[in-house]
Design goal:
The complex is a heterodimer of chains A (about 230) and B (about 220). Chain A has about 230 residues and is mostly helical. Chain A has one domain: Ferritin, core subunit, four-helix bundle (Ferritin, Up-down Bundle), CATH 1.20.1260. Chain A is built from nine helices and no strands. Chain A starts with 10 loop residues before the first helix and ends with a helix. The relative contact order of chain A is 0.17. In chain B, about 60% of the residues lie in helices and about 0% in strands. In chain B, helix 2 packs across helix 6, helix 5 packs antiparallel against helix 7 and helix 6 runs antiparallel to helix 8. The chains are: A mainly alpha (about 230), B mainly alpha (about 220). The interface between A and B is large, with 66 and 68 residues.
Chain lengths: ~230, ~220
């Protein structure tokens, strides 16, 4: 049995979104959360509101996942192991939504509304199409939490995020099992994603607005403006 | 027979497994069961802060990483011996080998970070495992299923207490890998569906210490 080759990164390499400012720069461009962006642009961002913005962004992702799995179950095309796994996925994501709403309200802030979600026309036509889309969603969820967590100020909110972040990793493994990917758990260091990367991945399901400015490919004017925030 | 069971390349005697696990559980003391690992009832409230991180505050990043390093060595040694014992083949072997390599890579990354911090890398302890741990696949996997939540709980508990955001980023990536391992071990233990937790569980420092002390980590 050959050893897997694993590059061991230094701690520095994990911190991909290097600062709050980098994270929210892309948020402002992407329009991922109008509230977050407008707060940033108006210069009102504080440690507390930043944490809430991150939690609201996570809530948007959880709404997307919860809605996706609920529709997947409604489609009635799942059976066997896949049905059981997806029932749990749907339940977990719905619980994450509830938990994040509760968390945001507990600090006196307002949770974002559930976004209007759109899925490809054939997304729910078969078990295979559902699992394919699930296999793209789950690593994005993992990457979003891993990218955003170091930007969270409150240890309590960070602790809450940690309890969800790991579950998204388990989801990756369960989907791998259904897709016949061996080994099921195959990442020594699951990757953080920048907000640009997360935005680009989920934009098609949120009405496409987030792709309109092209994520990290900023126009010179946008780069200038953001560099002066 | 479910699809998962039909994929299993080796016969596991569940009755033997249960008996051995009871012995293992007795040997390790009440530490794991006292933590309520694997129980229900943690549900939605887990996303509210439980304050476990407070038990890690004041240790400092280096001491937290030193402890994490020992946990990774323990896990890596456990999986390495499982591979050596020839308990597995095919997909099961591939998964155990991958987890072994992940744990060793985690230990290497932690050692390198300790070096960056100018902190000492702890000496490798003499680990001890319950008699029969490597005697059959089922006993081994039952112990694996108790190890992973300890690693998860330790990282999750310690993460908010870390000072360096770069170290935090590394720690939560490793935390995610440990959660992936938990789910993979569930698959090998024929738990179906294997994704059976909505919220991961953080553990306070003293619970982690109590859980690993019988295996030779006294730090």
């Amino acid at each position: 049995m050959e050893n897997h080759t694993i590059n061991v990164p230094g701690a520095q390499e994990f911190a991909r979104p290097r600062s709050r400012r980098d994270f929210f720069k892309s948020l402002a461009v992407a329009g991922a959360g109008a509230t977050a962006a407008s707060m940033l642009l108006s210069g009102k961002a504080s440690a507390q509101t930043d944490d809430v913005d991150i939690a609201n962004f996570a809530l948007t992702l959880e709404y997307l996942e919860a809605d996706f799995y609920a529709r997947a179950l409604d489609a009635g095309v799942l059976s066997g192991d896949a049905l059981g796994v997806v029932e749990n996925l749907a339940s977990h994501e719905a619980q994450h939504v509830d938990a994040l709403v509760g968390l945001i309200e507990s600090v006196g802030a307002t949770p974002v509304e559930k976004p209007t979600l759109t899925f490809p026309t054939d997304a729910f036509s078969s078990q295979a199409s559902i699992l394919d889309l699930a296999a793209t969603f789950e690593p994005v969820g993992v990457g979003a939490y891993l990218g955003a967590a170091p930007l969270i100020s409150s240890p309590d909110i960070l602790a809450a995020a940690g309890s969800i972040e790991g579950v998204e990793g388990e989801h990756v493994v369960a989907i791998n099992m259904l897709l016949g990917v061996v080994p099921y758990a195959n990442e020594a260091f699951p990757k953080a994603l920048t907000l640009d990367e997360v935005s680009a991945a989920v934009a098609p399901f949120l009405g496409g607005k987030m792709l309109s400015t092209g994520g990290p490919q900023l126009s010179p004017m946008e780069a200038y403006r953001l560099g002066h925030l | 027979m479910s699809e998962v069971e039909s994929r299993i390349p080796l016969g596991i005697d569940r009755e033997v497994s249960r008996r051995n696990f009871l012995k293992t559980a007795a040997w390790t003391g009440a530490a794991f069961s006292a933590m309520g690992i694997g129980g229900f009832g943690v549900a939605v409230r887990r996303a509210e802060a439980q304050g476990e991180y407070k038990t890690y505050e004041g240790l400092g990043d280096a001491a937290i990483l030193q402890f994490a390093y020992l946990l990774e060595l323990l896990e890596g040694t456990f999986y390495a011996e499982g591979v050596e014992a020839g308990l597995f083949k095919d997909a099961f072997l591939e998964q155990i080998v991958a987890i072994r390599d992940h744990e060793m890579a985690h230990a290497d990354a932690l050692a390198a970070t300790l070096g960056d911090l100018g902190a000492e890398v702890p000496a490798t302890p003499q680990f001890t495992f319950p008699p029969g741990t490597f005697g059959d696949a089922a006993t081994f996997l039952e112990l694996a299923a108790t190890f992973e939540p300890v690693g998860i709980g330790a990282y999750q508990g310690a993460a908010p207490a870390l000072q360096s955001k770069d170290i935090l980023a590394a720690a939560i990536s490793i935390h995610n890998a440990e959660c992936q391992h938990r789910c993979a071990i569930n698959i090998l233990n024929l738990i179906n569906p294997p994704n059976d937790l909505a919220f991961e569980v953080a553990l306070p420092l003293e619970d982690v210490q109590a859980a690993v002390e019988p295996f030779g980590i006294t730090g």
